[in-house]
Amino acid sequence: MAERSTAAVDVADTSGEEPLTAQAGKATDDGAEAEKVSGRDEDAAGTGEKPAAGPDAQPPELHSGHKLARRYRLEECVTRLDGFSSWRAVDEKLRRAVGVHILPADHPRARPVLSAARSSALLGDPRFVQVLDAVEENDLVYVVHEWLPDATELSTVLASGALEPHDAYQLVSQVSQAMAAAHREGLAHLRITPGSVLRTESGQYRIRGLAVMAALRGISCEHPQRTDTEAIGALLYAALTQRWPYENDAYGLTGLPKGVGLIAPDQVRAGVHRGLSELAMRALVNDGATASRQEQPCTTPEELSKAVAAMPRIRPPETSFTTPPPYQRTGFQQGSYGQPTSRNGRPGHPTQPVPAPPPPLQSRTGKALKWSVSALLIAALGLGSWQLADTLLKGEKQSDSPGSSQPGGGADKPAAKPLEIAKATEFSPLSSPFADEQAPNAVDGDPGTAWVTGRFRGMANFGNLPSRADGSGIIVDLGSEKNVSGVKVSMHRPGQTAEVLAADPSASAPTSLDAFSQRIGKKNKVDGELAASLDKPVRTRYVLIHITELPSDGTPEWFRGGISEIKVTGS
């Protein structure tokens, strides 16, 4: 009987990955690029390491329509290389598109691929394209992963030009944070390239092939953290310059001129952000680059992530509005109303002479009428001026009297204004955080980034786990005590149940739910935006957006939520 072993790895969203060919402008599969560049192997992604030689065995002879595990129907072969093949398939059980890597069970890399896939699936980080299943069955080993229909390869994005500073900042920030989290769990990528980084329509970046692609290609490395850091630096370099930071062309990008060495991005292209240029060189220092200001090199994704966080935040460009066309006078204003149009479109001469206006009244009756009308106008103006002055004087007397500015004698309420947020942290009182490094995404002014919870099965109240009894959310630190009168929260997913609480003024770095005794917004199920306001502001430094129940993530038994943006108003 054939052995079938599966990993409990249903940990991803139901949206499928749909990489098309590069000509179609969509993402291609992880293994789609097999070409080697002389002097530098693209598979090693600038690491200096070479993948192990591929076995002589050919990929299994499969065809469109073949079904794996009575569930995954193969649709189109995307890659056939080094003894394995990659397919676009359909999960008939959940009715979604998926990607599948297939290789023989006796392939030398079959066991490493299974191990890498299961380890990657256990990470469950939404910034990575998720592994959905890892199976050995009928002398085959196959790995099923997400297929993202709205994602585009970074190589395709860069084909149309270099990124704007804000987009390049988001790229290096999101990718370095994701890889830092992966390395903390002992996982490396070893093949981060413009083809393995995808950008979704919302502007978020997803990394595919974590650990799996290196295992499929037989790539190994003595210094995985340094290798991945240099690869992220190469991505940033390419995003800033639209050039690959080595002499050979790769991923549709032109390499640097031969013999000049690795020069800073701001010396390759005009208008490059100086801070990002130096950051790229600090990451690429592992390959011989030198930062222009001699900062310490970044040798791990964690160090690179901290260096990005230490930079002044790069805001998105302001929305540009089209200048309206110059004011055009109408034909009536130009005096051409009623005039015929000549053959060239210009007003012609009138066919009939315009009658002259009647002469002014010059008789005694006419003069008397003029003086009477003038006197009436002067009287009317005088009466109106007197009434206006009387009204203004009464208003001044009322404004001078104490307690008269509001009905009931109350003073004017100070106008609310946006409050600056000093810091955002994850609220996880009874267990370790999901992704505390993502918390700043909820206050960065960019709705395209978000803090996202973990994924829970069976129960909307965080899986009904004792360690999640108090829910989760984001704690906003205003830096000092402020009068808070309103909070607006853009939720990452509709259907979350949340409330807005404030800590006692005397609280210092509160972490428990008991410390947030002041209520700003009552608990409600939120479809999109949570808005809470107060007639009487509360005095606090810390505001908690507290999530108690999560919405479905697209499947009936899995739940996940998050927060995209938080704004606090007050004085």
Q: How many separate helices?
A: 9
Low-confidence stretches: 1-55, 320-351, 399-411
What percent of residues adopt helix (DSSP H or I)?
A: 10-25%
Strand residues, percent:
15-25%
Structural class: alpha+beta
CATH class value of the largest domain: Mainly Alpha
Question: Strands, helices and their partners?
Answer:
Layout: E1 5-6, E2 67-68, E3 72-81, E4 84-91, E5 96-104, H1 110-123, E6 131-137, E7 140-146, E8 152-153, H2 154-158, H3 165-184, E9 197-199, E10 205-207, H4 212-217, H5 224-241, E11 243-244, E12 254-255, H6 265-268, H7 274-284, H8 301-310, H9 364-400, E13 417-418, E14 423-427, E15 451-452, E16 456-457, E17 472-491, E18 496-502, E19 518-526, E20 529-549, E21 558-559, E22 562-570
Parallel strand pairs: 11-12
Antiparallel strand pairs: 1-6, 2-3, 3-4, 4-5, 5-7, 6-7, 8-9, 9-10, 13-22, 14-17, 15-22, 16-21, 17-20, 17-22, 18-19, 18-20
Helix pairs in contact: 3-5, 3-8, 5-7
What does this structure look like?
It is built from 9 helices and 22 strands. The chain has 571 residues and is an alpha+beta fold. The protein folds into 2 domains: 314 residues, Transferase(Phosphotransferase) domain 1 (Transferase(Phosphotransferase), domain 1); 154 residues, Jelly Rolls (Sandwich), CATH 2.60.120.260. Strand 2 and strand 3 form a beta hairpin. The radius of gyration is 33 Å and the shape is globular. The termini are far apart.
Explain briefly what this protein structure is.
The protein is 22% helix and 24% strand. The protein is an alpha+beta fold.
